[in-house]
Write a structure and sequence with these properties.
Helix content is 33%, strand content 25%. By secondary structure, the chain is an alpha+beta fold.
Length: 243
Amino acid sequence: MFDNLTINKLGFYVYALLNPLTNKVFYIGKGVDNRVFAHKNEVLENRSNLTSLKSIEIKEILEKKLDIKHLIIRHGLTEKEAFLVEATLIDYHNFSFEKLTNEVAGHQSGFYGIKTTDELIRQYNAPKLDSLFHKVVIININKRYASAKNSNLSIYEATKESWVVSKDRLEELEYALAEFEGIIIGVYKINNWYPSKTNNNKQNNRWGFNGEEASIEIKEIYFNKSIQHIKKKGAANPIRYNL
């Protein structure tokens, strides 16, 4: 634990947790005071009810009678600076190395995070999509896009399942539009739907679709168009049927 003199000098800081078994970083965070040590203490106090990947890894380290290595990457920061450094490091690590155990990406990493030059040009130049001319389902794949790129999955594979869709709508839907950060990056003709089970083997009204790339004429209507103007901040449902 840090003493008061050290705490007074640290300000906000960005830290990493390193696994001594592999000598690799498995978590990056920001904090003040003794935040860097809190993860280990939380595991020690609650060993029997651990669900996060981070906590499970910490438990495995402690069970081998070893200790986590705590690294302070930058200190003396403002909170705003710490958010920026944390997000930058998480993005870079997840892109270049093994995925961290962080459950969420860094602050505003979706909009300002790692992108190809083509993705940035698309982000800032995409014309608005103001009308829908077909029965479509717009599927937000923000949470899947980065992992899809890293694992060479196609945008189609990241889009096709599994989603909570009203069964009454299935037969009328013609096209699926894959949306990432407000931009339509995939347009697929829906051939059929199938029930899709979650990891706990429950269907829960989740569905996937089999489809194919839409025709050039249809893609010209929707592809690389922006719906950022109609997205509500904090909206949780990845599915929408209208603008």
